[in-house]
Batch of 3 targets.
Target 1
Amino acid sequence: MLRQFLQIAQFERRAILRRAFVNSLPVLMGYTTMGFAAGVLLSVKGGVSCAPAWSFVIAAMLVSGTMSFAIVPAMAASESFFAVALLTLGINFRYALYGFSMLAKWKGIPVVQKWFLVHSLADEIYALDLACTIKDPLKNRLYCLFNHAFCVGYWVLGSVSGSIAGSALPIPSRGIEFAMVALFLVIFTDQMKGFFRHHG
Amino acid sequence: MAEDVLHTAGIVAVAWAVTFGLRSLPFLLFAGRGRDVPPSVERFGSIISPVIIAGLIVYSYSALEWRTAWPYIAGVLVVVLQVWRRNALLSIIAGTVVYMCLLSAGCASNDYGDIVLDAAHPSIRYSAQGFLIGERYVDPRRVPSILKSYDVPTDRVIHILVDEESERDLKPARAFMGLLAHNGYRRSVLVTKKRAESHVRTEEEMALERQQHHAPSPRHASPSGKRQIRYKGASD
């Protein structure tokens, strides 16, 4: 399945790998720190035993920063599945729009690769995919795969180390739930700025 | 416990299913056809998502100490920083640290008065309208942290008074007990009004009560090892 990529010369594959890594460095900063905060929050407020394992599962499955925060109170309160579904729908609705700009680019790629790419189509990762200027579809896909793998790795790394720190160290936790509100406020502020730029 | 793990796993699975469903929606709708977002969909998205986020902000404030000014001060700080510096990470970390400092500096307090947990006059009540501590309605998810802030030990038996009209549907009350157990308070008990009124106070309890009337500050005076009945908030 990955054999297709052997059509690309080795030095070019390496160049794409390096380019994907360098471009993802800002995300490394953002994802590890935000993931760390989400991990700490889960370990101190999630009310679960073995928080690092849950952090890993949540980070790898959801690949969604906002949702990693929002799921913590839902877990602590044993919220109903319906309420969780509604919450997720509200928070992640924007993801339904991202795929539209990838339709042409990711046309006809093997289903497992497509699954992985779609599964991890989060905000920053999507932005990096869009910013990629490689025209050749095969090389572009390889770049996207590297990019997604790096970014998911950063997110998982940050989350798991955060929840390990949160369960092992006496991190002051009172009021840490404000991080989620702050995240929403930041998203809202940016949306408003964009809105007024277009309409105002 | 096993059920809890299953439910938590279910929550994660549901969140994943919805997230993945949303992400793959365009690929399912336009399978095989490469094209751009229809402008109507794009417009709908750009309007609906700030509305959703605004709703989430209001909703998530309810989990904070929203009766005090501090979460709003921290919130304004976040917005101002974000407009000024455009650094999401900086805004979030600064806002959260300021909020945590304000809270731990004692600016925000739990004003639930004294909490009584014995069977005769339990402060925690389950009524058809929701859960109360004393006379005030409270988000049940916040109760464990309130108990912790009152220094209630986790091995304390916690009586929850069930109002007569709510006796038929105990499901929320049981979920609440599960939530308490989740946070270490494994010994919670539901009490009906009849049972609470017929409760005869033991000698030990009466002695303790008498002792507490004389003690200048019951919160600090309670000797370790003895059963503490009344809990005072840190703000008193």
Target 2
Amino acid sequence: MLETFSLSWRVAVRHWLIFRKDLFANVSPTIIDPTLFLICLGLGLGAYVNQVEGLSYARYVAPGLAVSTALFTAFFECSYNFYVRLTFENIYKAILTTPIGPREILFGEFIWIVLKGMGMTSMVTLWLVVFGFCHWEYALLMPILGGLVSFACGALGLIASSLVKNINQFQTVYSLVISPMFFFSGIFFPIKDLFWPLRWLANLSPFYHGVSLGQHILWARELGVGLAIHGSALLALSFLLGAIAYRRVHPLLYK
Amino acid sequence: MGEKDAILISKELKKNYGKLVAVDGVSLEIQPGQCVGLLGPNGAGKSTFIGMVYGATPRSGGELSVFGLDPQTNSRDIKKRVGVVTQEDCLDEAMTVQENMSMFARFSGVPSHEIERRVRKLLEFMALDHKRDASIRALSGGMKRRLVFVRALLAQPELIILDEPTTGLDPAVRHLLWEKVLELKEAGTTILLTTHYMDEAERLCERLIIMDQGKIREDAPPRELIERHCPGYVAHFRNREVGNTLHHYLSEHPEGVVYEDSAGVGVRGPDLPWISAMVSKIETAPEVVRPANLEDVFLKITGRGLGSHA
């Protein structure tokens, strides 16, 4: 067990070393995109919007922006990046000649994606705290939330990797799954007044629960309720998606 | 040597991908210190067999034991003792030569304090030390191949698997790699090699296994294979029209065999006098006369060319 973890950790370290080589390119979207959203939506559109849930619009969107960083980081890492490592670069083929097996490779992916999600979410949260768009009291919970959302959305990316026939098809997955998840997550407007099937679907989305929990945390409202409902839903969905991803991707590495 | 000493024992090993049968009942044993060549046309099942040996591919049937362990349940312990040169280079393009090696050393479980020394030694061994800080993209095909080769030696393996190690390389690099393989062989390392080059197989291996369509067709030392399948000499003609004359000649001298290939038409006879008698009779000078070689054996066994009347 210890050896499994130690070998998985080395896979995660490999991804970090590659990530670090191009740190600025890899981190810049994480900082710049939420900043643009905050300026355009929070301040621009926000000027026309009175209050949402009793908050200025910038404060309303802030938690979701931090959580969405985890969604995009994780999905892209586990779709395009993973797929390229698997099919074009043959990285895993080489790794599999060493004592590392398919299980350690997958655990390594998960370790890496959780840590990456935690790091990216922390950076955006720090940004929000510095600009005063959120309550900082509970901000320390955000890296954990980011890690969990990243795990679930990374699992979605891995599942997509096991389904696509070529790299172009990720675009369809993005448009049909990731975009709707993003827009109907309550990040830009409360979804409680939406047509009921959409609300029902949102409940199946780990990202919706992540955003909702993030709002409880960064608005400092009813944290206990948020953790009980959205926290447990997020945990359950993460577990489910992680298990599906493992079962689907393992045969790609061991065939 | 008996089954007890063998480091690899395969019994009726099978692998299917859906309806496609890649490996179809392979039984063989490899003793420590042997250098075994695995030959066969593309798609014969060589790489699939190799994948099962180090546990990268699950088997569909039969038994397999490597170092007395089952690759299906204990590939980790097997892979600690096996070095693999994969058919594709599979190098990390974003990293330098040195970084690729150190990372692989960590994957292979080389103790941290050993990594730097071992990487330096291996890069020197393959004359790559001047490229240690070069990025992989800046390397020539031959350099990449050399790097993949020493990468497989990091864990000081007892068994080295070379899957087409010299395909696409220039003669100088091939000779360098051969030299290194022979050094390892001298040191007692067991080697399992696949190749499409018969000269490579003949030079390096004391035992050749010819596979075709997932099955073992032959398993013997190189000289024995030639003696058994294609003894004698070959006269080759560029002009295909000689074919008819040759067939006519052979109807009276059935010891010989005619074959056609992309370069023309040839005859194999039991010895040189037989060949010269034939040449003087048909009054056409062959382009070349040579001893039959492994390539002739290979083409005969895998169903193309010499002796198969194709």
Target 3
Amino acid sequence: MKINDEYKELAWQGLWKNNPGIVQLLGLCPLLAVTSTLTNAIGLGLATLFVLICSNTTVSAIRKWVPKEIRIPIFVLIIASFVTCVQLLMNAYTFGLYQSLGIFLPLIVTNCAIIGRAEAYASKNPIKQASFDGLMMGLGFLLILMLLGAVREVLGQGTLFDGATLLLGEWASILRIEVYTLDSQFLLAILPPGAFIVMGLFIALKNAIDDRVAAAKPKTENHEISRVRVNFDEK
Amino acid sequence: MALSLTSAVSKNAKILALFAIACTAIVAVVHLLTKDQIILQQQQELLRNLNSIIAKDSYNNVIYKDCYILPNAALGTVSPQKVYRARKNDSAVAAAITTVAPDGYSGNIELIIAINIDGSISGVRTLKHQETPGLGDKVEEKKSDWINSFTGMKLAHDNDGRWLVKKDGGMFDQFTGATITPRAVVKAVRNTVSYFNAHQSELFEATSNCPSQKTAKGTK
């Protein structure tokens, strides 16, 4: 039961409360740069997710043999090797996507979310929890990438899943949805400033939801306390 | 004290070295496993590009191996460019020449231009560019049909006034809001055709000297 609670907490932290994209604001460079289409966003999100799980698992597995003084260079080594492997694999099997992600694929190495999780969580916790943490943080990041990509693609080009064939192969062309037709693209949404604006709106929305939840919580607590007091008085 | 410090340093150095070796080994294994597939992908990409500008059934040689490196001076580019020669039963059919338009709106525009033996353009494709999305990126075939307006065109003589964008009095459309990009592309294509017309026979006679297909497209 206690372990279940820990997993629940990890999921909650990764997906919402401590989301690497909209709360920790880590890895903003790829987050903002490649989310001009949903396909690119999914591609980079999956690559980051994979690297995060692998690096968290490895870092956790070796945590007892790594002296404190040299842990950072070792973590960087591990992350860099996984990213290089992902890069080689994508170059070999999803060539089109590899080209459209360009420089942002190797830049996963510098995504602070990954070294941050390695240092803050994986280096202090058992393998199972660490890999689960990697999964949840990665999913949280992927989710934000996808939302950003979807909003920007719909606003900018009026489509969804444009170029999905790059990621999934020829059959995926049926996924492409033309939401509405634009004579010319809405440039602001496609260029980086649009990414900042949409991102800002997401953060605002998340904060608004949190505020509303927080505002709702004290009420119930007050209510309980008054009831307790009433009961006590009655006794 | 000094001794324990040295021993700690050497211990850490050993651990770091071990990790470096292990990580390098993993990357090396993945590299070996994917190497052939990556070369294959690059060849296919090149072939896709070539086949989109030279009709597949018009030639029967292995076009990406029949490749000759042009010296920098030939097209006025900074890096050496390549010529892929299409032949049918050893007689020349067409050549696909890579070139760079250095004066795009944001940097170089890499192009590949296929020219038939009679000097008419068989097709042009943009390989790489950083032009503004939505404006200058219409040079991509995916975004606009514009790049196909070259097909079938011929350069009558070196000062052919039709080989300009319409704004400059020529026959090629510019884009709304972007004149610099198409101007750069038209100029680069014109230079290439002009070079082809002047050096046709040497281009087809030169022996293949491209190193390997790995660097065939100039990508890393």
